[in-house]
Amino acid sequence: MTPNDKPDRVELAAVILTKNAAKHIVDCIETLRFADRIVVSDSYSTDGTAELAQSAGAEVIQRPFDNFAGQRNAALEAVDAEWIFFVDADERITLLLATEVRQVLTREENGWWVPRHNFIVGKQVRYGGFHPDYQLRLLRRDHARYDPQRPVHEVVILEGASGHLKESMLHYNYDDWEQFHAKQRRYAALEAGILVERGVRPWPHKFVRQPLREFWRRYVTLQGWRDGWIGLKLSALLGFYYGFMPHWYLVRPPQ
User: What is the Cα–Cα distance from 25 to 28, expressed in whole angstroms?
Assistant: First the structure.
């Protein structure tokens, strides 16, 4: 799309960030037909994601990936709409949620938190922080930007009030454990970069305290134990990846 091809400003645009998301992109787009525009911001996928999105009726813009906050801010700049609804390719919007989204656009809030149901390796996970798992995704475009200091697990800087929606989106993340481990290693590397910028040093006690703290938070405080074996496994793994690995990468950066 060239600058001269940009359509007029619309009320609601759904924006999907993608990189090699061919498996999910068409099904995701189908659940977003309630939006006035559907835009795929693609990081030069090599699996046909962009072509599939265009065939499904979405607009496609492309930008090299730098980090998640940068990608979302670039989409906010490029897509001319009063409201932007960010959706990941592996998420689905139910009819009830779509109706609720349209209803709140006339409210005074400038942002809305959307709850998620998470499905991990085919199983719905209800505790340990995986539900309601609120995400600030519905944004009044002129009043929102992403904090550039948080390139992963992005943080919205919102002018004005925000609200919480009742209906949940469906998140089909992690088809298998190999995908889970690969993504968590990427997140840990990005988090290590943030620690470097902040001047954090890899103190020995953090290799023990931080993983135990994250495990306790998820398994006990957030009741991950109620999900059975998968709750125990996820709490232990996320304690390792969130608590241990970023500090380990300060000692031995990933290649």
Answer: 5
Per-residue pLDDT of the chain (255 residues; tens, 9 = 90+): 444 455 567 899 999 999 999 999 999 999 999 999 999 999 999 999 999 999 999 999 999 998 889 999 999 999 999 999 999 999 999 999 999 999 999 999 999 999 999 999 999 999 999 999 999 999 999 999 999 887 677 899 999 999 999 999 999 988 899 999 998 988 888 777 777 777 777 777 778 888 999 999 999 999 999 999 999 999 999 999 988 887 777 767 776
Angle at Cα 140 formed by Cα 25 and Cα 58, nearest 5°?
25
Residues 117 and 126: their CA atoms lie apart, in Å, by 7
What are 142's strand-pairing partners?
none
Q: What is the CA 157 to chain-centroid distance, rounded?
A: 15
Furthest CA-CA distance within the chain: 57
Q: Please compute Rg for the chain using Cα positions.
A: 19
Residues 155 and 199 in one domain: no
pTM (two decimals): 0.84
Yes or no: say if 37 and 29 are a contact pair by the CB < 8 Å rule. no
Q: Which domain holds residue 13?
A: 3-173
145 with 183, same domain: the answer is: no
The first and second tokens of residue 82, run together, are 């009063």
Backbone angles phi, psi at 118, to 5 degrees: -105, 130
